[in-house]
Amino acid sequence: MKFKTKYKLSSQIIYGIGSVGFSVLAWFSSQPLFQHRYIQIIPFVVVGLFIFFALASMYYFFKNKQVEIEKGVLKLSSFFGFVKREYRISDIRYFTYKERSSKYIDWEELDLYFDHGKVRFYSSHFKYQEYTQLKDILTRGKKENIEKKRIHLNENTKYIGIGFLVAGGLFVLIAINQDKSGTVEVKEENTVWIEGNIVHDPKIRTGSKRKKSLTIELDQFVDFRFELNGQEIKPLRSTELLKDVRKGDAIQIRIWKESYSKKIAKTEELTFSDKHFSYPTIDILGISASGKDYLPMKAVNEVRENFHTRGNYYGLIVVASLIVGVGLLFIYMSYDESMDSTSS
After folding, report:
1. Are residues 304 and 315 in the same domain?
2. Are residues 9 and 131 in the same domain?
3. What pLDDT is recorded for position 327?
4. Residues 313, 227, 263, 48, Cα dihedral to 10°
5. Cα separations (Å) of 20 from 24, 97, 132?
6. What's the predicted TM-score (pTM) here?
7. 323 exposed, middle or buried (CB, 10 Å; 0-12, 13-18, 19+)?
8. What distance in Å separates the CA atoms of residue 53 and residue 7, rounded to the nearest whole number?
9. CB of 199 within 8 A of CB of 247?
10. Which of 117-121, 123-127, 262-266 shows the highest mean pLDDT?
11. CA-closest candidate to residue 172, choices 317, 12, 331
């Protein structure tokens, strides 16, 4: 009996788009990494994820693209038509299959176990009739290994748990980058004023969930961005600022004395967090130009007290702890199920 089929064109298109799309995202996302003195961890992780997805898409794009069965031999050919692997169907020891589903698609995974190696087919890679025929030929007269299937499902549970642990770790990294001193009062004693010429016209940007932000760059401090974000932008007299201040104008910005000492004057040692989580950004605590105060200290302290007492930093730590807890639960469940299957 001779059987021959190819992967669906739609699968190839998806992997092709993924390869190009994630490669482009990785390229553009990596550019800011080398514009600062220290590599920033969170952007670095994002670039790493884009690279991973790009390589995974390329791998599946060039993987087995043609399946042929002839004279009891299973042949898997590459994208360019070269035979990569051959297996005798009679050497199949056992098989497992698992039904999967997502929000948009349902599919099935068929695993064939040989004395040396394993072959996996996804039903979504083939036309339905071709996949059912392929599965029937390869599994005819053979039994599914239920125990192996259970072990594999336990491994998936463990990997989900590990994924939650990684996500919890990312939340911890984000929490580290928060202002843990948010309840500290802004005063003359713990802040300094710096002066420079503004590089661009000031502009209030609206991000996700309608959060507003202001970023100011100064000719005299090209390595840094001075930022005012979220709730702390509320006391800003934005209408007057946007009307009065233009590109090239002299402007004074109040910042933490600690930030000035570490990043600008370089009289204090930078911590790991300072270097790799927030080096290019400095918080704005006050703005003044031509003797006019656009961000009054009293209003700043009122907003900071109301906002930060809600626990921005500690809230993220709580979320991270919950995510890590779920991850540990999944890992425990995977080992618990393994023990149950062993005892049974």
Report:
1. no
2. yes
3. 85
4. 70
5. 6, 31, 32
6. 0.61
7. buried
8. 20
9. yes
10. 262-266
11. 317
Q: What are phi and psi of 116, to 5 degrees?
A: -130, 90
Q: What is the mean pLDDT of residues 54-60?
A: 88
Q: Please give the residue that has the higher pLDDT: either 339 or 14.
A: 14
238 located within any domain: yes
Confidence band of 274 (pLDDT split at 50, 70, 90): confident
Looking up residue 259, the CATH number of its domain turns out to be 2.40.50
144 DSSP 8-state letter: B
Residue 124 φ/ψ region, left for φ over 0, alpha for ψ in the -120 to 50 degree band, beta for the rest: alpha
Give CA–CA dist 194/288, Å, rounded.
10
Amino acid present at 46:
V
CA distances to 7, 182, 202, 311, 313 from 320, rounded to whole Å, are 41, 20, 35, 14, 11
CB 260 within 8 A of CB 293: no
Rounded Cα gap, residues 208 and 322, in angstroms: 24
Residues 174/323, Cβ–Cβ less than 8 Å: no
Residue 59 belongs to domain with CATH number: 2.30.29
| pLDDT (0 to 100) of residue 341 | 47
User: What whole-number percentage of the chain has pLDDT above 90?
Assistant: 29
